[in-house]
Structures are given as C-alpha cells and as structure tokens.
Amino acid sequence: MPKLKTKKSASKRFTKTGGGNLARSKAFASHIMTKKSRKRKRALRKPTLIDRTDRKRVARMLPYC
Predict the structure, then answer these.
(1) Which residues neighbour 34 within 8 Å (Cβ) at sequence distance 6 or greater?
(2) What is the pLDDT of residues 3-44, one digit of tens each?
(3) Distant-in-sequence, close-in-space partners of 21: CB < 8 Å, separation ≥ 6
(4) What share of residues in the chain are helix, strand, coil (percent, to 5)?
(5) How many C-beta atoms surround the C-beta of residue 46 within 10 A?
C-alpha cells in the first residue's frame, strides 16, 4: 500500500488540538482593520475549531495529522 500524500495547503491552514479536534484561524483579519472594533479584532486573533460538518473532509486531507 503506498503512502498517502498530505494536502500541503490544508496542513498550512489547520492544526490538530490536544483533544484531537482541528483548529483553524478566522477570516477577515488581514486588512481594512480601521473600521473593525477593538473587540472584534481581538476575537479574530484567536483560533477556532472547524465545523463538525467539515471534520471528515479536512481529516481526509491530513492523513497523518
């Protein structure tokens, strides 16, 4: 059986948490930050878990994660 290849784009976007979940960074935090509130910008810095509906699809892209 050959080795499975990891999708490199997915490996750069998702990380595995200690509990076995997959974490991602939030969108809309790269530019035009002046109109966003301080509270909103602070919340965008924190990672969040991926949705359960996407878990299977993302896990397939990261076979050894």
Answers:
(1) none
(2) 999 999 999 999 999 999 999 999 999 999 999 999 999 999
(3) 49, 50, 55
(4) 35, 10, 50
(5) 9
Three-state DSSP class for 49? strand
pLDDT at residue number 12:
95
Round to whole Å and give the CA distance between 17 and 31.
27
CA distances from 43 to 10, 23, 38, 55, 60 (A): 23, 15, 9, 22, 29
Can you list the domains of the chain with their CATH numbers? 8-61 (4.10.410.60)
